[in-house]
Amino acid sequence: MNNLEQIRANVSRRQLINTAFGIIGLLIILVSIVILLALVIDMAIDGAERLRPEFFTSFPSRRPIRAGILSAWVGTSLVMLVTTTATIPLGVAAGIYLEEYARKNWLSALIEINVTNLAGVPSIVYGLLALGLFVYKFNLGESVLSAGLTLTLLILPVVIVTTREAIRAIPNSLREAAYAVGASKWQTIWDHTLPYSFGSILTGIIIGLSRAIGETAPVITIGALTFIAFLPDSPFKSEFPYISFAWLQAPFTVMPIQMFNWVSRPDIEFQKNAAAAGLVLIAMTLVMNGIAIYLRYRFRKNLKW
Fold first, then answer.
1. pTM value?
2. Residue 114 Cα to chain centre, angstroms
């Protein structure tokens, strides 16, 4: 009887601990959301009056009323295009290889430890690495291509780790069923493992891209401009072959650098421009997340059918 009472007491204590932990976790989440909303609302109050069409179609200027973010948001879009194009195939392919093909020995364990640790390396280190590798060694210059590859190095470990964890979460019974009907290893991965793990992989990709779009230190290190009054060449041409890659070698600036430039000015009007640019940057991040959520929903819906 004493043992039964002791078991009940232990169960009650554990339930109380679980309830307290849930309440504390909920409070932390609510406080974080309130702080984030307060910062966004304060930014919106300061920068809402600047969000006019001219703000998106004007170059930076010494006059805050005439200053815009045309070169900044175009540069950010092009850099993120390069980053996305390089990160997704490299990161997903590396994660598939390490999880499905690499032998489980000391070398693969060493690679896994290093990839995991690289995800926590400060971004300025990647900037210094890219400065020596892309700018000086490969002679890519202070260009959009160098910036995109730099941010690719920055978020590649996150995508690799997320891909591995997503693939690892797929039950082995799914693979065994594919092998039982004669599928090869690659057919099993392409037709079964990847579709079921795509949602989690996409989440990791968006987390990485959301980090990359707000980075300042790496792109400053490789030579991003703080003031630029021209745009890179258009990726599209009117004559054959209708596509141009000259924009990859163009100088650039990005939204975080433009915001830093305005925040460092003593004029309060430039602070409003920085707040408006911050709202645009948040909107760009939300758009990327919205696209990821939609794609994840579509893939999961197709899998259910």
1. 0.84
2. 20
